[in-house]
Amino acid sequence: MNALVQFAKELAAGRIRVVDLTQTLAPDFPTITLPPEAGQAWPFRIEEISRYDDRGSAAYWNNVSFSEHTGTHFDAPVHWISGRDLPNNAVDTIPAEHFIAPACVLDCSKQAAQDPDYLLTVDFVTNWEKEHGRIPPRAWVLMRTDWSKRTDPVAYQNYDETGQHTPGPDSDVVQFLVKERDVIGFGTETIGTDAGQAFHLNPPYPCHYFMHGAGRYGLQCLTNLDLLPPTGSVIFAAPLKIKRGSGSPLRVLALAPA
Amino acid sequence: MTPPLQKPKRKNPILRTRLPVPPPQARSRYALGLLRGAAQGRLELQECRDCGQVQYPPREMCRRCLSDRLDWKPQPEDGELISETLLRHSLELFFRERVPWRTGLVRLRGGVTVVAHIHADVPPPPARVRVRAHLDRAGQAVLVAIPERDTPNMADDKIMREMTCDPKFRKVLVTDGKTAVGQALVKALAKAGADIVWVGNAEPWKNFPGFDEIKSIPQVTLLNLDVTDQRSVREIAGEIAGRVDIVVNNAEVHRTYGISARYGTDAARAEMDVNYFGLLRLAQEFGPALKARGADGVNSAVAWVNLLSIYALANFPPHGTFSASKAAAHSLAQCLRAEMRPTGVRVINVYPGPIDDEWNQLLLPPKIAPGALANAIVNALRQGTEDVYPGDVAQDWLARWRDNPKALEVEASNP
Q1: Residue A121's domain is classified under what CATH number?
Q2: Global pTM?
Q3: Number of A:B CB contacts under 8 A?
């Protein structure tokens, strides 16, 4: 019996849990907000083609529209200027084997509850490793903040007159994860992989800058990270195969021991 | 004296909702000339360019000299009621439901005698009156004789209520409460006595300056209405459309680009999505309920207001894609007016010049203040006009466009 048959049997027997890390694509789910004079990412929109009616008596179906960075979505290296010249940097050319990888879940939910502008640090990661072991190469690092439990879009976006206040990584920890731990990417529950105030970090949006500059990926608007163990889960995250696409909404599934 | 309008009792739910019946609509092409002035609340009659004769009713030729060179010109509104007929019976359904109804003959200061509906506060003839050109529930121009001087509650007279769309005691939807114009509209409508003001709050995490003040107005209820989202429009229409008497669609996106100043279509699409498709979505979801309530008692469904732009008539190239989206909305608003007309719900189109907001920062004055625009809209509802060109720039562009659209095209490209 090969490992995959064994895997299917474990799954069927309920010894492996499938955890859906995906937010529902819905028109009222927020999209990243930029100054109004800038180009804007389209929110998710859906309009009926027909609903068993005069427009199509046998069928219910819809037209949908969204940006590559709407809802739970994947960021490819080409998304950022630092990754623009890398080989295989778009969603259609990234090797498919990169879409399946183990995950380490760092629980920052207490810190984020106390400080919406909380920044993940190298110290936090090294302390986490003391308890859970070293982050293996080519693993996803997922920052659990329980931000996805903020189902009210106002609380989720958490804007005031100085902008958005949501947690994310600081500049040093991103470089540490890339250079010292060789992660495959970084994932968050918030609207972006960077903190809400990351425009004011150095460089601005360090997670985008360093991850994509090193050919690594991003996942954001994840949910259910609280259902994953700190280590031992595997993530399936395959973006839509958009020609020269910079990212895409996707269904992110985690496999975890039951 | 007209008794003041009382807040109507709640509707008796076991009675059939009365269907709208339009007043008589047949008019000759010449008689339709009255509409041009009446749509803006102006009394205009035919004047002969050759002999100066003012005539009524409208005809294809001057009844004195047979010239066909007739121009529609504003007329003095004052005159004398010289006779009166009290209509007690009519085979027209509209009047049958409303008799007794005063009509009469008024000799205007200009010398011509006209047929007019007569306000209840006008004394029996002979009496000094003013004659106003109004639009009736069919959207046709009619003349109404009102007292020489204003009387208390004169807007509450039954004939006036058939001509106007007063927000007093009515329930109003303002589709975007976040812009300066939206906030001014909400305040003005609440002050005008609206019973409920539902206020669109798209992207609720954005809290613009002044918006908290709107939330504190007692009549205001916020709605997560986003005109770009068909499902949100449908769900909110499902909740409230059956109670909305007046829709004020002020949701707009305004970017300041022509074709070459902005690469790509994203900004232009956003403008079209809100300014044109937003109106289409709202009209499809809210229109049917309003149409069904065009005669639903004292606070019937009565008006649909579209915030358009004077640039809908002629493109203003520095704001070229915005102008195009407003031209599309202007055209669709004509379609909406045609579909609403049989139900008595008036479509009021508002064509301001530049509004004094952040998107017109670089334009020199005059710019219309948001508060002035809101007041112009409330006045249009109260007076029953259906085409509104508020402010100096709008009036100037309208005059130039009517005089010579080709000249305006060239002038607009060298502002």
Answers
A1: 3.50.30.50
A2: 0.96
A3: 38
